[in-house]
Amino acid sequence: MGRTISFSEAIREAMEVAMSKNPDVILMGEDVAGGGGVDHLQDDEAWGGVLGVTKGLVKKFGRKRVLDTPISEAGYIGAAVSAASTGLRPVAELMFNDFMGVCFDQLLNQGAKFRYMFGGKVKTPVTIRTMHGAGFRAAAQHSQSLYPMFTSVPGLKVVVPSTPADAKGLLLTAIEDDDPVIFFEDKTLYNLKGEVPEGEYRIPLGQADMKRTGSDITIVGIGKQVHTALKVADHLSKQGVEAEVVDPRSLSPLDNQTILQSVEKTSRLIIVDESNPRCSIARDIAALVADQGFDYLDAPIKCITAPHTPVPFSPTLEDLYLPSTEKILSAAEEMIGETLTTV
Amino acid sequence: MGRTISFSEAIREAMEVAMSKNPDVILMGEDVAGGGGVDHLQDDEAWGGVLGVTKGLVKKFGRKRVLDTPISEAGYIGAAVSAASTGLRPVAELMFNDFMGVCFDQLLNQGAKFRYMFGGKVKTPVTIRTMHGAGFRAAAQHSQSLYPMFTSVPGLKVVVPSTPADAKGLLLTAIEDDDPVIFFEDKTLYNLKGEVPEGEYRIPLGQADMKRTGSDITIVGIGKQVHTALKVADHLSKQGVEAEVVDPRSLSPLDNQTILQSVEKTSRLIIVDESNPRCSIARDIAALVADQGFDYLDAPIKCITAPHTPVPFSPTLEDLYLPSTEKILSAAEEMIGETLTTV
Amino acid sequence: MKSVEEKQNSIQQEQGLWMFRKMVQIRKFEDAVREIFARGDIPGFVHLYAGEEAVAVGVCAHLTDQDFITSTHRGHGHCIAKECDLKGMMAEIYGRATGLCKGKGGSMHIADFEKGMLGANGIVGGGIPLACGSALTAKVKETDQVTACFFGDGANNEGTFHEGLNLAAIWNLPVVFVAENNGYGEATPFHYASSCTHIADRAQAYNIPGVVVDGRDAVAVYHAAKEAVERAKRGEGPTLIECKTFRNYGHFEGDTQTYKTKEERESQAEKDVIQRFIQYLTDEGIASKKDLDRIENEVEREVEEAIRFAEESPFPSENELTTDVYVSYPTDGGGA
Amino acid sequence: MKSVEEKQNSIQQEQGLWMFRKMVQIRKFEDAVREIFARGDIPGFVHLYAGEEAVAVGVCAHLTDQDFITSTHRGHGHCIAKECDLKGMMAEIYGRATGLCKGKGGSMHIADFEKGMLGANGIVGGGIPLACGSALTAKVKETDQVTACFFGDGANNEGTFHEGLNLAAIWNLPVVFVAENNGYGEATPFHYASSCTHIADRAQAYNIPGVVVDGRDAVAVYHAAKEAVERAKRGEGPTLIECKTFRNYGHFEGDTQTYKTKEERESQAEKDVIQRFIQYLTDEGIASKKDLDRIENEVEREVEEAIRFAEESPFPSENELTTDVYVSYPTDGGGA
Ligand SMILES: Cc1ncc(C[n+]2csc(CCOP(=O)(O)OP(=O)(O)O)c2C)c(N)n1
Ligand SMILES: Cc1ncc(C[n+]2csc(CCOP(=O)(O)OP(=O)(O)O)c2C)c(N)n1
Ligand SMILES: [Mg+2]
Ligand SMILES: [Mg+2]
């Protein structure tokens, strides 16, 4: 196995591997190199993205392949999409997923639909990396988790990794995938460390990971909430309840089978996700199981999500906004029909 | 009760009533008057929207209150939002909901979040009217039903009417509502006729309508699919199965109670909607019932939606794309455990 | 700068005949679509390019299959000028399996990547960022491919116009932006919706050349495009060409055009672009009336064949509904 | 046109002292935020306006509470110039219940509609269409309210810039567009990201006046804004004013600004806008050094009080999480 590196280093590594292997892979985005057009700036002093995730790549690959863009998301996301359908394999960064609103058309109506509208005669191997997630005190316009909207769009693939190793393996796969992939990075996970294999390391899309096995209850977690789920599972275990924690890793394609098999075993399902509740991935998975796994179920399916509110700025409110171990535990408790000591 | 008028006339009437009552109500959008700046054009010859829904309003209210806009959706939708928060009550038309991608930020991050971000100190009474729906042979970029994305956004209200009377009553309420409302109009329903009350007629948001009562199975239909559901119900009735058809009418707020009460009575639930399946309103409602109505259920919850594909152009494919009575019947059949003759 | 005469002289016979053929193809194709649509055999709605032929043809005359174009909702003319197959186009408009997009795209989404035609576009202004993308590919791969980006006067008020032109300018991309100013976006006149006097004036905002040409003069378009394409190939970046043109029919079929005066419709129709090009070709001795008649007859037959081909073609099979969403289509289509 | 001298003379004493006070308030407020942020007491991230005071103040000097402004992620200066309460602002930045937005908005979303401050904005270019909206309200209601729309040099490449300026131009809306060109959008220089030489050059694309002023000269900004505001009030439509300015600190706190040379940082800091305005006020005999010192001391105390107020304020109560999403909040919040 690999060394211990951070989530953000793992992401950088995936890009580095992909770029080393294939000259068609280019990076573009606001300050992904950093300081475009500044003469005196040493490449190793360049920003490398607003939180430094791409730092070092411009030094290695040069400004011809690591392109700073103007603040023109519709312009450069559209350019990335079309560069992909004409022969490049761009990795474009949309700094915060919250900014989708200024460029969504280029994904929704252009990149996502090219293949279908054009009768299967084109492929669009573009990857959009973007930050999501609350907990950073970044307020209402920089903290959302908007993958449900992308998941709803046929033609897009959607990835939400929870660990450094998954992030690396999934990003390399995403870049090499021939379809448009939206790759979500929780900014509060960037410093999370974990063992990550060196060199080429890939994880297929559409393959959930069992982050913990158990027989009493299934908890599906998305992104950072996988960790909340694991905490809850530890706690439950102390009380003799073994939770199975399933991390779908990609939301589109979604690994229905692994989820259904887990529920077949445990008969109980909680989904934990920090998007807003309505038309969310949590409800999407709940509906899947309420249809195809109905007969396995012994209890109502619980979705633990953010409330139907924007993300509040104040730390005290933002902490309440996120799914908590308490809420998950009390849902589990209700399902199991026993009183569990709270964490 | 009223006269028989069409869906599109009912919509126009709601605007007419609202504008007559309140000088702050203005209309804006591409060709909502029609022929902005054309000297020789008689106001009654002006387009009145691309499918003529606002025809006649410019004649009655003048070009100061019925504003043709440039093809600049981010510009004028944003202007409508901010005009609302500074004292007007605009009804802005986003011609096709598919165009949301070029202006979504002004709703997602601006209008929808003002009230929350600004600590409750502002209201934004804007209504966005927009066309949706397949079946018009309008292809992949003019046929989508994107209300799930809007429903997921806290701060927005979302309305999808299915009949002329509902359209009028809901639109008048929407315009007079102090929050931003996205009002979806199925372009294939515009010619549908129905009885509509004259003058001021309002239907509250968040109140589902029982379009048919029954005791054996609940079918929730969205927009045009209410009619498909009713057709199926007629057919089931002939075979002794009485379906209850619930039309939520507004997706946000959603009338949870009516849906849950219906399922309590019937123990079976099918949701019919023509959006793509993932993170859809169909799955959203399914998840609601799989949680809060789990104990009522005797069978898996079925979502009959469009497939996970863009809308195809070819008529033969587009007809297959839409939910069909056959598909709904076979789902019902499975649930009821009896063989029903297909329509 | 060469004089106008010198420039005109530079259209070679082969080129001139090609242009004529393409213009006639567009006109006859569109007139046929209009008729077929009127009798209800074509589904959906169609936006016809008739009247604007000189623009697409004058520009595409300088492009090869390796070069790219992006297009609009009014895309048939661009497709034909970029040498898409008439049969495949007509079948697409009919929604048949033999269409260029297997019938899945329709009139507003015809594409043919093998011809460098990157797609008609149902989103006004949607193609402008895409043009930057194909140009970026050419730049990164160091080929000399040029991208011509067609869009309407209505599109020039979309944010993508601004973002695309600025991006092309700072990256010095090989794009020729072609504004087709037919005076209207739907029913709304250019002068109402746009605060600029000419679209080409907006080029200044990006420090790139902006040129206004008479878009009903194929020769003028040809020369302006030549310069812009050569400039792009020399690595000198984008140009914005505004072609003042005229839409022979309504915004879409069914539009009665009350917003145009009778005089406007008639006075413009007089200046028909094809008649004008015929005049030029014969005046200059590039072609005889006989040559041109022969071509017209050939095209007539081509269009008839295209219609027959479309009408005899099958609709797509049921399974086509769910194919072509992804290259690799794992599980059951994203959990659906 | 008046000569520069004549113009300068027109700043009245009351106005001059108000401007000085506001500039000092901004500077001291921002320097305090910087310190508090560094020691970790302010959550999230903050973008400071220090160095750019002359712009917000020179513009807002012409506005009343009835007039509107839209702002940016770097909004503290605009808030202060529009007379938002320092205590309420500081409490907001601390995330306290007594903040102008009850702590729900934070640094990037401070608003005070009673003062006509329509909100800072976390979306670059997001405020530009909004400015057209408040101006439309004024126009439809036939008031003489003006909207000043602040945005950065980075924002001038967003599509909303183009759409907003065009819309304001064709509708002749009472907006003053104020481009704060501090030379950088994050780490990227203006000249790399923007194809125009000056942002003001882009005004030509909308047939509206475009003016470049030294944004570090409060007097120059004051006069340019005066003309633009009067023009707007006369119903003559929008103006674009580009203020060349300088950001004293990094893009956000924590940015080490490797993209600026040491010389750049130092040479610019020398031209400090407040020192320069002091010079002007004293040279012109508008204020004595003593008056100004007194104001500085008063502001010092105001900022200290604001900090104390914020620190002593409670955090919002739990129930605040789910209030203020809708005016009417039927059922349980949209089915959630
Ligand atoms: C983003 C977007 N907004 C609006 C429309 C509806 N629409 C289709 S064509 C058109 C007019 C376009 O005008 P112009 O760009 O001048 O092209 P023309 O039709 O004159 O060729 C409009 C408004 C659209 N398809 N996409
Ligand atoms: C739509 C959008 N894109 C990107 C960002 C990230 N971002 C925040 S501030 C900023 C730079 C803005 O530069 P400029 O407009 O010059 O304002 P300045 O920071 O210099 O005051 C960027 C890129 C954003 N907030 N919104
Ligand atoms: Mg036009
Ligand atoms: Mg800047």
CATH class of the largest domain in chain A: Alpha Beta
Helix content of chain C: 40-55%
Oligomerization state of this entry? heterotetramer
Ranges of chain C where pLDDT stays below 50 over 5 or more residues in a row are none
The CATH homologous superfamily of the largest domain in chain A is called: Thiamin diphosphate (ThDP)-binding fold, Pyr/PP domains
| Overall outline of chain A | globular
The distinct bound ligands, ions and cofactors come out as: thiamine diphosphate, magnesium ion
Q: Strand sequence of the main sheet of chain C, in spatial order? A: 1-2-3-7-6
GO molecular function (chains A, B): oxidoreductase activity
Keywords (chains A, B): Oxidoreductase, Pyruvate
Pfam families (chains A, B): Transket_pyr, Transketolase_C
Protein name (chains A, B): Pyruvate dehydrogenase E1 component beta subunit
Question: Would you write up a description of this structure?
Answer:
Chains A, B: InterPro entries: THDP-binding, Transketo_C/PFOR_II, Transketolase-like_Pyr-bd, Transketolase_C. Chains A, B: Keywords: Oxidoreductase, Pyruvate. The complex is a heterotetramer, with two copies of chain A (343 residues) and two copies of chain C (336 residues). With 343 residues, chain A is an alpha/beta fold. Chain A has two domains: 2-197, 3-Layer(aba) Sandwich (Rossmann fold), CATH 3.40.50.970; 209-336, Rossmann fold (3-Layer(aba) Sandwich). Chain A contains twelve helices and 14 strands. Chain A has helices spanning 7-21, 57-61, 73-85, 105-111, 114-117, 147-151, 164-176, 225-238, 256-266, 281-292, 315-321, 325-336, and strands spanning 3-6, 25-29, 66-68, 89-96, 127-132, 157-159, 181-186, 193-196, 209-212, 217-221, 243-247, 250-252, 269-272, 302-304. In chain A, the strands form three sheets. Chain A has a seven-stranded mixed beta sheet with strand order 3-2-4-5-7-6-12, sandwiched between helices. In chain A, strands 9-11-10-13-14 form a five-stranded mixed beta sheet, with helices on both faces. In chain A, α8 packs across α12 (325-336) and α9 (256-266) packs across α10 (281-292). Chain A starts with a strand and ends in a 7-residue tail after the last helix. The mean pLDDT of chain A is 96. Chain C is of the alpha/beta class. Chain C has one domain: Thiamin diphosphate (ThDP)-binding fold, Pyr/PP domains (Rossmann fold, 3-Layer(aba) Sandwich), CATH 3.40.50. Chain C is 43% helix and 9% strand. Chain C contains twelve helices and seven strands. Chain C has helices at residues 4-9, 13-38, 53-60, 76-81, 86-93, 127-140, 159-170, 190-193, 218-233, 262-270, 273-283, 289-312, and strands spanning 68-70, 147-152, 175-181, 184-185, 188-189, 210-214, 239-244. In chain C, the strands form two sheets. In chain C, strands 1-2-3-7-6 form a five-stranded parallel beta sheet, sandwiched between helices. Chain C has a two-stranded antiparallel ribbon with strand order 4-5. In chain C, a hairpin with a 2-residue loop joins β4 and β5 (188-189). In chain C, α2 crosses α12 (289-312), α5 (86-93) packs across α12 (289-312) and α6 packs parallel to α7 (159-170). Classes of the chains: A alpha/beta (343), C alpha/beta (336). At the A-B interface, α4, α6 and α10 of A face α4, α6 and α10 of B. Residues 152-154, 182, 184-185 of chain D line the site of one magnesium ion.
